[in-house]
Structures are given as C-alpha cells and as structure tokens.
Amino acid sequence: MKKNKLGGFSAYLGTLGALVILCVVLTIASKNFLTYSNIMSVLKQTTFTALLSTGMLLCLITAGIDLSVGANATFCACMCGMLVKNGMTNPVLLILIALIAGTLIGLINGTLLTRLHLPHPFVSTLGMKNFLWGAALLVTGSQMISGFPDGVMALGSATIGGFPVSFIVVVIIYVIMHILLTRTALGRSIYCAGGNMEATRLSGIDSANVLTFCYALSGFMAAIAGIVSIGRSGICNGANAIQPYDTDAIASCVIGGASFMGGKGTMFGTIIGALVIATLRNGFTLLSVDSAVQNMVLGLVIIGAVLLDVTREAMAAKARRKEAGAKA
Amino acid sequence: MSEYIVELKNCTKIFPGVKALDKMQLSVKPGEILGLIGENGAGKSTLIKVLTGVHKPDEGEIYVDGKQMTFHNPNESAAAGIACVYQELNIEKLLSITDNIFINKWIKGPGGLLDYATMHKKAKEVMASLGQDVDPTKAAGTFGMGVQQMIEIAKAVLIDAKMIIMDEPTSSLGEKEVEQLMKTCRDLRDRGIGIVFVSHKLEELFELCDRVEVIRDGQYIDTRDIKDWDNDSLIAAMVGRSLDNLFPKEFGVKGEVALKAEHLEEGGVLHDVSFEAYRGQVLGFAGLVGAGRTETMRAIFGADPLDSGKIYINGKEVTIKNPAQAIKAGIAFLTEDRKGQGLVLGEPIRNNLILANLKGFCNGIFLDQKKILEAGMKNIESLRIKTPSIDEIVGQLSGGNQQKVVIGKWVNTDAEIFIFDEPTRGIDVGAKIEVYNVMNRLVKEGKCVIMVSSEMPEILGMSDRVVVMREGEVKAVVDRDSKHFNQESLMKAAWGGTLDD
C-alpha cells in the first residue's frame, strides 16, 4: 500500500515539474507574474476550468467524454440571466434553478448514452453542446445580461483577504471527489465500468446507473461553474457557449494523467492540469500574446498532452510486454 | 540439403531476470505436422516469436532449407517462408475476405489501381483450396471463427509459406470447425508444407500430429513419433512429474435442490429448458458449441432476458431481471470469456476480487481497506494465485491465475450456487487441477456447482450429474451411476440421438 502511494505520487512529478517550470519561466519573463494579486487571479481562472474538469474526469474515467460542459455552464448562467431580467431576485432560488438545470442536462446526456444506447458520448454531447449554445442565445435574446443579485455574484466574486472563495470551494469539492473516487464503492465502480463495462455489469453493478451518475454530476459541476462565471464577469453571455472551455477541461484531465481509454485519472492530477492551463492563459495575458498565437499554443499543448498520454500507454504496454515475455 | 525445412538449434533467449528459452531446439520436416506442447509459461510463445522474428534470440541458429538465417523482424521471417496463425486472429472484421488476404500484398492493375477482379478470383480459389466455399467480397466479420482462421491460413498459403505455425488454433472453434481445420492441416501437409501445431488438447495431438515435441520451463524435453507417446508419458514429460489423476474428483453429500429451472424460453435460443441442481453436487452441462448452455446460464443469471419460465432457489420462486438480483439470490457466474466479461484487466487484483461484492466490503459509505486486504490475501493463499503482490494489474497474470482471481471474486460473494462456464479453457494442466479442487471444496461445503464444459473428459471426470443440451433444448439428464455416463452416450445425445433406459 505504501509503495502504491509513493508510486502514485511520483506519477505527478512530471506534471508538477511542468507547472513549476512554467511558473519559473513566467516569473523571469514578466515582473507582474509573481505578485499576490496575479496569483489570486490565476486561482480565479483555475476555478472555472477545475469545476468543468471534475465532471469531465469522471466521464473520461468511464472511457466517455462530455463535450457539453462549457455550453452547459453558459446555458445555466443564461437561465439565471433570463430570470433576473424577468424580475426574479431571490439568489437561493436562482442558484437552485441553475443547479437543477445543469444536472438535468447531464442526466439527459447520461440517459442518451445508457438507456437509448447512442454509441459514443462524443456524438451525443457534441449535439447537446450545439443545442445549449442555441438555447443560451434564445433565452437571453442574444443579449448580454447584467444586474445579478449579490447572492448569486458572491460565489465567483467574494474573496477573503484577496483569496478567492471560489477556489476554496473547488478545493473542498476536489477533496470530496477524491474520497468518493478512491474510498467508496461508487468510486471503484466508476473505474471498473471504465475498464470493462460488461465484466462490471456481470459482477452485479448497474453500470448504466454508474455512467448516468457521472454525466449528471458533470452537469451539476457545469452549473456551479456557470454561477462562478457570473460572479467573475458580472454578466452572462450566450455566445460564450462555443468558447473552448471543454477543450481546456479535457486538457486539464489528460495533463493530470487521465486517458481516453478510460480507467485512469485522479483528482489531484486534474487540479494540477487545471493550474497549468490557467497559468498558461494568465501568462499569455501578461506577455500580451496575440490571441491568435494563444489559441495556437493552447492547441499544441492539448495535442502534446494527448501525445503524452499515448506515449505513456505505449511505454506501459512495452514494460508489460517485457515482463510478460520474461514470464513466458 | 537438410532433412528439415526449418531448424532451430541451441536457442537461448534471456529477458531481464528470466531465461525464457534455454538451449531450445525445434526441427520441422517438409510435409509433417509437428505437435508442440508445454504448460503455460513453458516458453511456447517465446519460441514462436523467435521463429517469426518478433524476438531476436541471444544465442542459437535458425536454418531454413539448411541455410542459416537471422531475422530482424517479422517481415524477414515471412519472406523466408515462416508464417504463423496466432491464437488472437489479425482479422479486420469490417473489410472483405479479399482485403484481408491481400493486405499489404495488393495486386495492382495497369495504372496502379487495385485489381479487385483478379484478387477476388484468387481469394476465392485459395479459400476453396482450404475447403471454404465463401464469397470473398463479404466482410470477414460476417463469418464464424473457423472461416476467419482460414483467412489467416490463406494468407500463409499465398506467401508460399514453407512452414505454418498454428498457436492453439482450436481453442475458439466448434467441433465441426475443428474437423475442417484438421482436414486443412492434412491437405497442407500433403502439399509439402511443415506445420507446427500448438495445442493444450492431447487428443488433438494424437489425432493429427506425426511427431510431438514437449518443452518445459524454457527447455527442450523430448520429441518422439506420435506412436511412441501416450497420454501419461506426454503429461509426465510436460509437467515433469506424473499426475496420477487429471480429475481429482471428490464427492460431497447430495442435499436439497438449490436451483430449479422450469420451462425456460428465450426466442430462438432456448426452448423449454428445465433442470434441477442439488447442493453438494457438480451438475455438468455437456453439448456442442452453440447448444444453448451458456445462454441458459446467462438467462438464469439475469444477463439476458427470458421470455418465460420460472426459476426457483431453495424451493422459492425468484425473479431475476439483472445480475445484481442474481447475486443477491446467491448465484455466482464465472463467464467463459474471463478477459471480456470476468475481469477488469487494467485494475489490480485487489479491486477485481471485491468487484462482485462492493457493498460487503464497505464500512458505512467507505470501502474497508483492511477487510479488503485480509480477504484478498486469503484468496491469494487459498486459491494459490501466483503474483508478486495484491496490487499487481490483473492483465499481467497468466491465464490460470486470472481464472483464479475470477473464482476469488465469486467466492467473496458468499454465493450458494456457483456456475462455472468453461472454467479450464486455455489454462494449463496444473492450474486446471487447482480449479477442480476449488469445485471439490465447494461441493463439500454443501454448495451447488454447475459446470458448463465442452471437454468431455472434464464433464465425465468432475460431474455428479450431467445435463446434455442440443439446439437450445435439454436432451438428456444422466446420473454418474447410470450406464449412459460415458463419452459415447453423452455425445450421442449431444448430436441429437436418444438414450434408451
């Protein structure tokens, strides 16, 4: 067990190292990087991606994917905006409605996959993304909406001595999710369903429910991210639904050790991945990198992360072959 | 010219820490079928991979037609005329038979475009020469395993292979397909091709081979003409000791009916299947591949839906709609496909062992790691799972040890009824006996064991009663003390004959 934990930690050394190097480079390149206020803004930036990555990670572990997380977050924010515009001011009710909407959308994603047997969630969640994009524009009349009540804004904007509350919430969520994934029967079922769906089903575990749970949770997290985005910008904008939030989330998970083949990935790795992405984006802003170049670099990072995943798999397979060959 | 087409001499292959082959030798004459047999881990796979150029030997020579060769990769070995039909076929299921046969060897017409007319014609010819009258334009995946294997053989024939290695070719075939394969092997032999036939099934070796080579622990043991081998001497050579009894059957005390199935119906698959299984007994299910035995078990376990029929456990009718309910009712089901349906290969032993009883290993909402570790260590010890650690990834274990992990998974559920579907398929003799001992222990504890098996000796060796199925129906139920408890009668029933009283 001890050996396992140590081995688990060493698996993050590469990613942690990348983050540290990135920070060192940015500290040298920009005198504004290593300042308290800038680090706090990196954490704020991390929050949104980290929330989306939570659900994304669960879906990736089950060998699936949720491409609708970004659009879902935007849609939930726009739902709130529409209600605010129509005179609703109760923040509890607004947050509750957003959470229910997001979870429901996740539930639909899960149901499409498990009960209606759509092949790979890539297709269904891509469809859902486009649907939500349109829906977000529809409910807001393609207008940006502002004037949210403080209660809704608080999650994304409140700070304690400059430290964003939203990041504390993320840490709490990540700790809970870590325990869920590693210490509970449901967590084990998620990994096993990702590793071998049929064997898991024949072991008496309702794989369909396990998968549906993952997508519903992904929707729930997207809704929280949507609320956070309102607090950060003070507005909601339906056009944001096609921002590359999903790819940021996928990149975070994969940088953190998740695999498209399923069965792998941890919360700890994912938060580091999310920090890497947020730091990169922050660095671009500080160095006033042209947004076109920003997109190109981020694209390369994602390709690099997937390449890393594939290389990792190939190396593991090679090690296994060597060992197996030695046994034969 | 040498007497042999392919000769391997003094071959040693060392992997980090292990001598996989130690002065191994193998020689194949043109026009003969050489059987190759050894326990799992004896070095068969490494030997094959050295011959096919996948591995480079550290020492030793390979001669083809008396000429010394060095293979750097599989292409060079193929060019020299050595082909291999691996156990896991390399078939592109969605592509046509022609595409599969001519992959990488396409025939091009004028202008460099593929000449499908010629390729289809040739594909049809070569498949016909292997006894397969098929339409080569159809997707390979639409044919059964037998035909798919023939496609692999056709590839070998097409490159004018001098020697074809067949790695456990019969393990996934039905009875008729095995017969066809054997016929093809004899045809190829008569054309002067040397065949290396790797098999775990002794009776196949006796039926087909001219000579048999035995290897053990990476070392060459012996090669003799088939007439100089018998069952006992082969096994003794293979395991290094004589196994007095391949089937160490022990008897439990026959108890109450644990499981009763009544008039099970599943459209086009099962028809009016009824049987009773008792505590303290092994109930064997015999029949040809496709007779509906696995389907019966899947239906009882709730893996596939039944159209109608009743299931009683301990005399009480139960409704089982999914595997979770079956497990709750006390049924354990070891599927025949342990990699696809029994194990999560990428997860460690620890997690696979608790998979069927996660709730039982929870303390409140959390998994009880201490309990999991204790139970896991107990499983590893009592089932003799050979592994460096409980955290070893299951995919890295040998077939026999993987099977033991599956057994452990079900032992941990406190089930009362254990269904073993082909429990010893693809595992070596030593591991087989350990699986039988688990069954013995279960029946002695008063549990009910149901064993589906296509190996007649196993059915006869281990069962207290046998149900024979054919085409989705129960054809006969035979007690161990009945005069029909023999291979001839059971096969007769399996082929549709009736047994008189």
Helix content of chain A: over 70%
The poorly predicted ranges of chain B are none
Strand content of chain B: 25-35%
Regarding quaternary structure, what we see is: heterodimer
Radius of gyration of chain B: 25 Å
Named at the architecture level, the CATH assignment of the largest domain in chain B is 3-Layer(aba) Sandwich
| CATH fold name of the largest domain in chain B | Rossmann fold
Assigned CATH class of the largest domain in chain B: Alpha Beta
Structural class of chain B: alpha/beta
* Total number of domains of chain B: 3
Find the count of extended strands of chain A (DSSP E, 2+ residues). Answer: 2
Largest sheet of chain A, if any?
Answer: 2 strands, antiparallel
The number of distinct β-strands of chain B equals 22
- Output the CATH homologous superfamily of the largest domain in chain B: P-loop containing nucleotide triphosphate hydrolases
Question: Mind explaining what this structure looks like?
Answer:
The complex is a heterodimer of chains A (328) and B (501). Chain A has a domain of 203 residues. By secondary structure, chain A is mainly alpha-helical. In chain A, a hairpin with a 2-residue loop joins strand 1 and strand 2. Chain A starts with a helix and ends with a helix. Chain A is globular. The longest helix of chain A is centred in the last third of the chain and has 37 residues. The N terminus of chain A is likely disordered. Helices cover 77% and strands 1% of the residues of chain A. With 501 residues, chain B is of the alpha/beta class. Chain B folds into three domains: 234 residues, Rossmann fold; 134 residues, P-loop containing nucleotide triphosphate hydrolases (Rossmann fold); 78 residues, no CATH class. Chain B contains 17 helices and 22 strands. In chain B, the strands form five sheets. Chain B has a six-stranded mixed beta sheet with strand order 6-7-8-3-9-10, with helices on both faces. In chain B, helix 5 runs parallel beside helix 6. Chains A and B meet through helix 8, helix 9 and helix 13 of A and helix 1, helix 10, helix 11 and strand 18 of B.
